[in-house]
Amino acid sequence: MPKTININKDFFDNLVVLIKNKDQRKLQKSLLNMHHADIAEIITNLSDFESQFLYENLHDEIAALVLKEVEDEKRKTLLSKLSAKEIAVDVIDNLESDDAVDVISDLSEKKKEEVLSHIENEDYANDLSDLLKYEENTAGSMMATELIKVNENWNTLECLKKMRKQAEYVKKVHTIYVVNNNNKLLGTMSLKRLLISNKDTKVRDIVNSDVYYVKTDTSTEEIANLMNKYDLIILPVVNENQELLGRITIDDVIDVVKEEAEKDYQMASGIYEDIENNAGILTITRVRLPWLIIGMIGGVLGAKVIGVFDIQKHFELALFIPLIAAMGGNVGVQSAAIVVQSLANKSIDIKNISEKLTKELGVGLLNGLICGCLVFLFTYILGYNLLLGLTVSLSLIIVIIFAALFGTFIPLTLQKYNVDPAVATGPFITTISDILGLLIYFLIGQTILQ
Amino acid sequence: MPKTININKDFFDNLVVLIKNKDQRKLQKSLLNMHHADIAEIITNLSDFESQFLYENLHDEIAALVLKEVEDEKRKTLLSKLSAKEIAVDVIDNLESDDAVDVISDLSEKKKEEVLSHIENEDYANDLSDLLKYEENTAGSMMATELIKVNENWNTLECLKKMRKQAEYVKKVHTIYVVNNNNKLLGTMSLKRLLISNKDTKVRDIVNSDVYYVKTDTSTEEIANLMNKYDLIILPVVNENQELLGRITIDDVIDVVKEEAEKDYQMASGIYEDIENNAGILTITRVRLPWLIIGMIGGVLGAKVIGVFDIQKHFELALFIPLIAAMGGNVGVQSAAIVVQSLANKSIDIKNISEKLTKELGVGLLNGLICGCLVFLFTYILGYNLLLGLTVSLSLIIVIIFAALFGTFIPLTLQKYNVDPAVATGPFITTISDILGLLIYFLIGQTILQ
Asked: Are the Cβ atoms of B292 and A331 closer than 8 angstroms?
């Protein structure tokens, strides 16, 4: 088992003291054999000066891995202290191509070129330069070029020999790809088949051509769905001519899956943008304010709606404003969330929109009736005016049905126009439901209470 | 590339027609070479009778894989038509142990035993029986027993020979484990090392002992965090004596990560429980109603709060009830969501609670001041009474600060008492914020407006 340290406050505080005292010997001893992901987590919580000092006390190989792991802002700070040559030799040469590209792409155009010019292995520099050209969030920008491939014309003995050589340049051997003389991807060869076949069996006779692959311009979201659905651990990437260019591993895709899910969650909670754990007060305020302002505009519009009616005459209507507003929002968000999730899971779109709306209408009707009856009972028990009770429960039923339909319809429509449907579960839908609810409530109230 | 069919409405409708006409020849042709995950998706959208007919037209090997993939309810229906012997021979024998356990665990105790008694390979039946005993959501219940292991005393040539034999029983070779004579896990051997080492090198000399492992009782959540943090693709499982019992692969963990994230999202959207895509109206109503009732009780309490004050005298206060209620809820959910996410990501708990609250106080103050000023401006422009504008903006500032502190404090407290902190981002916190906000608003209103 690798050294796993319980990174608690004591351990952390102790490190900070070592850094303050510039006690390099003890610091290096503390960090020895620690996993780079743990060190990255520590660095995230240090000040810039402290992280810098700690970083300088790491071995190059670990330092490079830590750099790929830390959050963007921190990485930029650490990189800014390194010369192009240091980045090329100490960092890039210790990373696989996909991580190397992540690091380089944070640099200015000028420094990028400088770094590439300092990379000794020219082929590798060219590979990196090619990788840097792919658009963000595509297979090309995510893939690594390190892989093991064998020619269909080799026999298994030749394979083992050649793979031995290739393996020196590859960190982990996940899958063995089979290509023809033109580097066209033909399939994979399982280690198992290699192990149980005779020495003179040709690769082409044991190739598994049932292999999923993606083109360089496939989106990361599509890749995540594909790998998740078909339980793939590694996915080859080809160009237009089906030539094998690289591969994507599942660990990178997990990050995509997590980020997607977190983004939806943040949307639903009214947070505008992903921020880092240690973001400052100004950043936090910036990502939250837009939603709050939407909510506020909604509130002011709500005031206008109420103002249209003669509230002074029926002041008792004011009592249940919070109930009507809250319930409309709650139901709308519930419906929208279910739609957003089924869209995110790419559930086959067999049922069409009208079927979905019909079902949601049923749910709304049932929920509305139950809630309506309950609220009538509540108001009766609490001794409110019967007509007021009737107004509230009737409005509630209608508001719930409307909000359910709205909540289903809006994300479906957004999706159709290529807007992230998760937007619909945020304060956006709550605000619309609020105003709509108030309108219904006062209309019914004025009619019933006269 | 495997046959990938665009499963659109036309393709689906066509299948339904084939099933209705009992056209087995054409149906089988349509399904030929389709991935089991795609077939499972189709089955999910069929009626019970249709799924049954389609299932019977699949080859046993594919049928077994489809069965492991479909949602629980559908699986139970399909299994109910099979005898214990059919399940044992056609299904279980075609699955890896972890999937086999998933299928068996859906059966009644009596049928479980019957199925196990029909499995020919006695060792395998015993393995499955052992696996069934582990508690849900632990490493034991998730692991598969199929793996490749080599003895530290073998040389690489012996390894290849023995692995060849083991590989016949294992579907995919991901990692080669090294054990001693007592089956104690010593580490892994990389395929790369195996390939580049001399034939007479002993395994013990090339074992990589830096291997993460978990005990059978480790929770799935912990496993997901471990695999994600350290980029692990496969994780060995050992018992108390460190004997190697099985392994967990990343594809199972992705499902855990996704489900965790979806659970949080559902919580935040006020959905009480995960439901299947094709759930009926009653099920959908059941999972949504609890939150709605909480919201409704909150609304009734809100009415009580408003009732305490002399609303008739200051009826204009009613206008901004929706604004105050909405903003309190929005801010509370935002703060809570940030805490929930940092707890879910297991960000090191270096900063203590009071630091977090202080930061949140800062954010609340800033957001409050900005929103307060804006709302004062709005009300001024729209020509509302200045004192009313003052009341609304002053209340808003205080409500935002309170909600921010509340939103931070509640999930942290829930976590401390082992309650899922995501609960706090649901209608729960909105409801509390609503009531608190109204109280503050009316208190200030009555004071200022006299």
From this structure: yes
Structure tokens at A449: 């209470």
A231 touches chain B (CB under 8 A): yes
Given an 8 Å threshold on Cβ–Cβ distance, is A190 in contact with B211? no
CATH class of the domain whose range is A148-249: alpha beta
Which chain B residue shows the shortest CA-CA distance from A352? B9
Burial classification of residue B283, based on how many CB atoms lie within 10 Å of its CB (0-12 exposed, 13-18 middle, 19 or more buried): middle
Question: Do the Cβ atoms of B248 and B213 come closer than 8 Å?
Answer: no
* CA atoms of B237 and B222, how far apart (whole Å): 13
d(CA A382, CA A370): 18
Cβ–Cβ gap A228/B331 under 8 Å: no
Tell the CATH topology of B281-449: Tetracycline Repressor; domain 2 (1.10.357)
Chain A nearest-CA distance from B83, in A, is 29
Structure tokens at A135: 């658009």
Predicted structure pTM score: 0.78
Closest-CA distance of chain A to residue B352, Å:
9
- The H or E element containing residue B35 is none
Indicate yes or no: CB of B334 within 8 angstroms of CB of A288: yes
What would be the CATH architecture of the domain defined by B9-133? Answer: Alpha Horseshoe (1.25)
Domain with CATH 1.10.357.20 in chain A: 281-449
Q: How far, in whole angstroms, is CA A387 from its chain's centroid? A: 50
pLDDT tens for chain B, 450 residues long, are 555 556 677 888 888 999 999 999 999 998 888 889 889 988 988 888 999 999 999 998 899 999 999 988 889 999 999 999 999 999 998 999 999 999 998 899 999 999 999 998 888 999 999 999 999 889 999 999 988 899 999 988 888 888 877 777 666 667 889 999 999 999 998 877 777 788 888 999 999 888 899 999 999 888 988 888 888 888 999 999 999 999 998 888 888 877 777 777 777 777 767 666 667 788 888 888 888 888 888 888 988 888 888 888 888 899 999 999 888 888 888 888 888 877 776 654 555 667 778 888 888 899 999 999 999 999 999 888 899 999 999 999 999 999 988 888 888 888 888 887 777 777 778 888 888 899 999 999 989 887
Answer whether B293 sits within 8 Å of A329, measured CB to CB. Answer: no
Q: CA of B313: which chain A residue's CA is closest? A: A312
Contact B290, A287 (CB under 8 A): no
Q: Answer yes or no: are the C-beta atoms of A204 and B223 closer than 8 Å.
A: no
Least CB-CB distance to B281: which of A190, A324, A359? Answer: A359
**Is the minimum CB–CB distance between A270 and chain B shorter than 8 Å?**
yes
Q: Is B18 an interface residue toward A (CB < 8 Å)?
A: no
Q: Which CATH class is domain A9-137?
A: mainly alpha
ipTM over 0.90: no
